């Protein structure tokens, strides 16, 4: 479950924009009021008809129209932002100073495999991407000579864009790198480092995940994507013979995708079929019955069921199963004998979620079971460790109670990130903590002696010029919503303070209150920043996610609105100086709010790759990810789902003659998750129906970005400097609108 270390390295992907051309004639726009259409079936039929009749749909799907539209909108944005160029430069200098201080820290060891320690090292120049290195694991002061396995900056200089999906060291000293070269498609080629050098050609052309196995690392298991990018097959590559790959498993259901992982004891390969309907099942491949072949495929978990999930580990003849007992409920940890049947009635309970601890994941070592979770009341991360001194004893009423690891003082918002703890026999658990006041700090927890030690990392909280509070906001239905508020010690929030609000609320992903230097220029200028941990995220456990997905998506919106009201009514901001910043799925929440400006009256909005054309995207199964997202956002083939989708869809509900906020909307022509045309026509529709505000509606198509923004060292800094300057300019400063 806990994936191996991986990140997007980013880089420069130069899109050859064509020279300016004549603007093509643009079709008219239309407004549909779903509320006037009556019954559920009537609304659904009207919505389906509107998708095909949308005049902007075909126009912006034409590639030449996309390029010319991006050119024109970029020129307009450049003119609007020209007065902020000096401010952008000053903010960029501030961010660069902070980044140099961060990268000057000692490298963090992220994985130890075989006789080597693998880690990330700073590049030769300040603005270089990092290098992946290793040293021999030796005792004493002699750590062995550093060997550079992969220099990301060299690859960027050669290919223009590099995405690093994962680093997979093997026990014999080889290392597999999952790399995107030249283009961001979220699928990778697998390159090998044989211990001496990285091979020039990939051993696998298309993969999403990979795992080693076999004597001398002869075999590579990997997941292969289909034409839409969905990992649908698991294959085994024999690196010694080079024979055709062996198909291990195939997933035919378009709503499910495959993921693979080795159990920590290396006894099994787990093949997990997952869907956004919170459903999964696991197949196991035994790896001890021969070289890479093993005992064949074995179905462990019960057949897939909507709302019920299974994830599996192995230890000492027992399978450890992370699962929930009913749809939408919290996870528990069960155990089943490996040599017996897998009827759920025979499972024993090792650890259960409760009122004070919601289990979200597990890590199984030879002598300990680590439970990752959240505190359901506060939404804060939590960690518990259970000694494994006999499964039967642990499962009995007299078994050991898990040890609670003290992570942070109560009330201090923070984030938790597990390290790659691949050593099955390890007695120490490695992880890192971060907070809005402190950069990532690495910790080692001695599980046997219950001793927590900081190994290296960020400054102590007391040295920070900022303050952070964890607020608990009461929503309209009585739900307690966690909100992280950050501000400067010199400028506590007041009725005059500008405020930046952020929200995500999707996929059960936490909006982590981590160290974020990108907002520091605002905080130093008297702003406050807040993160709204709305339903749909995972901050308060698995039920919190289910409360804000699918037909319950409006709860995410309500939480965001209620947080806004709380901050305004408690005098923590000026209601005329509130801005919002969202990314991807967070665009649904912010997009709804700007169409319906009570209670959230935003002065300015930044939307990066916002998912705002919900109906059109989810109605097109030929797009990557669409079918797999039915469980998250709704199935347009269901009338009941489509009615909810129609009400919340930002694009479908754009209003005429309304005061929209100033908007900076980023997109990319190569975004495979949120299509360019879906973002561009949203901005275009707002502008056409509110023509007097077009100059303040900026669509910025960045040729050096993908769905996650710009990569590399300077990319995120340039984005942050522009964002901050835009917010200050549109929220605090008066400006003269310039007509293009």
Automatic annotation (TrEMBL):
EC number: 3.4.21.-
Any single Pfam family the record assigns to this protein: Peptidase_S9
Peptidase S9A N-terminal domain location: 53-452
Residue span, Peptidase S9 prolyl oligopeptidase catalytic domain: 519-712
Keywords: Hydrolase, Protease, Serine protease, Signal
GO process terms (BP): proteolysis
Signal peptide: 1-25
Annotated GO MF terms: serine-type endopeptidase activity
Family according to the record: Belongs to the peptidase S9A family.
Function, in words: Serine peptidase whose precise substrate specificity remains unclear. Does not cleave peptides after a arginine or lysine residue. Regulates trans-Golgi network morphology and sorting by regulating the membrane binding of the AP-1 complex. May play a role in the regulation of synaptic vesicle exocytosis.
Designated name of the protein: Prolyl endopeptidase
């Amino acid at each position: 479950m806990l994936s191996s270390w991986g990140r997007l390295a980013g880089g420069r992907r130069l899109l050859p924009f064509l020279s300016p051309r004549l603007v093509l004639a643009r079709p008219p726009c239309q407004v549909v009021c779903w509320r006037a259409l009556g019954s559920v079936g009537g609304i659904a039929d009207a919505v389906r008809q509107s998708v095909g009749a949308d005049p902007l749909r075909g126009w912006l799907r034409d590639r030449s129209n996309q390029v010319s539209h991006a050119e024109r909108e970029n020129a307009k944005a450049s003119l609007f932002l020209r007065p902020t160029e000096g401010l952008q430069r000053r903010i960029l200098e501030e961010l660069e100073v902070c980044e140099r201080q961060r990268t000057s820290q000692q490298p963090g060891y992220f994985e130890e495999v075989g006789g080597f320690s693998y880690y990330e090292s700073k590049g030769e120049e300040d603005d270089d991407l990092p290098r992946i290195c290793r040293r021999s694991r030796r005792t004493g002061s002699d750590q062995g000579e550093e060997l550079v396995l992969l220099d990301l900056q060299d690859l960027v200089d050669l290919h223009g864009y590099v995405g690093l999906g994962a680093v997979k060291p093997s026990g014999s000293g080889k290392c597999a790198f999952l790399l995107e070269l030249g283009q961001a498609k979220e699928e990778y080629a697998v390159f090998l480092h044989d211990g001496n050098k990285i091979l020039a050609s990939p051993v696998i052309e298309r993969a999403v995940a990979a795992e080693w196995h076999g004597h001398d690392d002869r075999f590579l298991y990997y997941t292969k994507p289909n034409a839409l990018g969905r990992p649908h097959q698991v294959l085994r590559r024999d690196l010694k013979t080079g024979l055709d790959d062996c198909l291990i498993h195939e997933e035919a259901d378009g709503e499910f995708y495959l993921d693979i992982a080795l159990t920590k004891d290396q006894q099994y390969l787990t093949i997990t079929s997952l869907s956004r309907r919170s459903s999964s099942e696991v197949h196991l491949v035994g790896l001890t019955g021969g070289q890479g072949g093993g005992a064949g495929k074995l179905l462990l978990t019960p057949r897939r069921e909507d709302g019920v999930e299974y994830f599996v580990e192995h230890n000492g003849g027992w399978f450890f199963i992370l699962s929930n007992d009913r749809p939408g409920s919290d996870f528990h940890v069960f155990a089943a004998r490996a040599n017996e049947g897998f009827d759920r009635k025979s499972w024993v309970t090792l650890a259960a979620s409760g009122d004070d601890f919601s289990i979200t994941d597990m890590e199984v070592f030879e002598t300990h079971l680590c439970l990752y979770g959240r505190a359901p009341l506060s939404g804060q991360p939590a960690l518990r460790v259970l000694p494994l001194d006999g499964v039967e004893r642990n499962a009995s009423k007299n078994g050991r109670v898990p040890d609670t690891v003290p992570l942070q003082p109560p009330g201090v918002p923070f984030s938790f990130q597990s390290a790659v703890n691949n050593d099955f026999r390890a007695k120490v658990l490695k992880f890192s903590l971060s907070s809005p006041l402190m950069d990532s700090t690495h910790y080692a927890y001695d599980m046997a002696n219950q001793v927590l030690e900081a190994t290296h990392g960020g400054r102590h909280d007391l040295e920070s010029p900022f303050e952070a509070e964890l607020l608990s906001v009461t929503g309209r239905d009585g739900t307690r919503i966690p909100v992280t508020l950050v501000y400067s010690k010199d400028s506590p929030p007041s009725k005059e303070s500008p405020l930046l609000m952020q929200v995500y609320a999707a996929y059960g992903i936490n909006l982590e209150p981590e160290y974020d230097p990108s907002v520091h220029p605002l905080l130093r200028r008297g702003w406050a920043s807040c993160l709204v941990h709305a339903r749909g995220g995972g901050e308060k456990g698995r039920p919190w996610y289910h409360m804000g997905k699918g037909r319950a998506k409006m709860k995410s919106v309500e939480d965001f609105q209620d947080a806004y009201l709380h901050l305004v009514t408690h005098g923590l901001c000026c209601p005329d100086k509130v801005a919002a910043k969202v990314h991807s799925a967070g665009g649904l929440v912010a997009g709804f709010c700007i169409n319906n400006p009570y209670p959230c009256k935003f002065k300015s909005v930044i939307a990066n790759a916002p998912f705002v054309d919900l109906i059109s995207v989810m109605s097109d199964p030929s797009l990557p990810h669409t079918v797999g997202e039915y469980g998250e956002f709704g199935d347009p083939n269901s009338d009941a789902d489509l009615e909810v989708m129609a009400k919340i869809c930002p694009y479908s509900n754009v209003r005429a003659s309304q005061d929209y906020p100033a908007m900076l909307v980023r997109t990319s022509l190569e975004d495979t998750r949120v299509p360019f045309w879906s973002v561009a026509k949203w901005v275009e529709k707002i502008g056409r129906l509110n023509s007097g505000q077009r100059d303040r509606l900026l669509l910025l198509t960045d040729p050096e970005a993908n769905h996650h923004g710009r990569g590399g060292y300077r990319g995120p800094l340039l984005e942050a400097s522009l964002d901050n300057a835009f917010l200050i300019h549109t929220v605090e400063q008066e400006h003269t609108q310039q007509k293009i």
